[in-house]
Amino acid sequence: WCLPERAPRGDAQSASTARYSAAHCRGTRPLRSDPWLGSGRTWNDILYACLQRTVVELRQQLGDNPHQWHYGHINQLTLRHAMGRVPTLRPLFNRGPWRLGGDLDTLCMSYSPRDVANQPRYHAAPLFRMICNPADWDTSRAAMLGGQSGHPSSKHYADLAALWMQGTTYPLLWSRQQVEQHTTARLVLER
Fold first, then answer.
1. Which of 43-47, 95-99, 138-142, 170-174 has the lowest average pLDDT?
2. Residue 25, Cβ density class (10 Å: 0-12 exposed, 13-18 middle, ≥19 buried)
3. Which one of 113, 122, 162, 183 is separated from 26 by 20 to 30 angstroms, measured CA to CA?
4. For the whole model, what pTM was predicted?
C-alpha cells in the first residue's frame, strides 16, 4: 500500500485524512506495471480511483466530516417479522435497527451488502453460535440472535439480542438437573 502511517501534523491535521491519503497515493511511484491494466494504467491509478469513489460515497451517506464516519451507521441490523411488513405493525413485531461492526471475514460476522439493483436489502449474520463441551455438557455456551419466544409481547422475544451483538454467550444447559434448577417458567400445551 502507498498510504502513510499517519497524517502530517500542524495545519494539515485538520484536513481530511482520506484527501491526504489519496493525494499521497497519487504521488508515489507505480506499484508495478501490469499488462492486464491496459496502456498507461498502474495499480496506484486503480487504488486512487477506488479511494476517490469511496470518499464520494461515504460523503453522500455520512456527511463531509470523516470523524463522523462510523461503520455502524451503514452496517445495521433489523430483525423483521413477517407481520412487520404492515407499516402499523412494524413497531410491534420488528426489532432494531442495531448498529453492528463486523464483516464477512471477521469473527463476529455481520454484513450488509451494498445496494444491488433489483435485489431486496438484507443483512447476513449467523443467527446462532454454540460452543459445546462433550466432557461436561453443562459448561456449553451459546448465543442466539433474538430471543427464546416468538411472541412479541414476551420479555423473551428479543432479550438475547444484546448478548449476541456483544459477542458474549449464555449457558447452554444440558442435564435435566441444570435445566430444572434454572427454569423460570413452564408452558404446558394440552390437547
1. 43-47
2. buried
3. 113
4. 0.64
Farthest-apart Cα atoms in the chain, separation: 78
User: Which residue do the cell numbers 461503520 mark?
Assistant: 71
For residues 100, 101, 106, 107, the Cα torsion angle rounded to the nearest 10 degrees is: -60
Task: Report yes or no: 127 and 103 within 8 Å, Cβ to Cβ.
Answer: no
CA distance 56 to 62: 10
What is d(CA 22, CA 166) in angstroms, rounded to the nearest whole number? Answer: 34
Q: Does residue 24 contact residue 8 with C-beta atoms inside 8 Å?
A: no
Q: List pLDDT tens digits, range 98-149.
A: 988 888 888 778 887 776 666 667 778 888 999 999 999 999 999 999 998 8
- Sorted by sequence, the CB contacts under 8 Å of residue 71 that are 6+ apart come out as 101
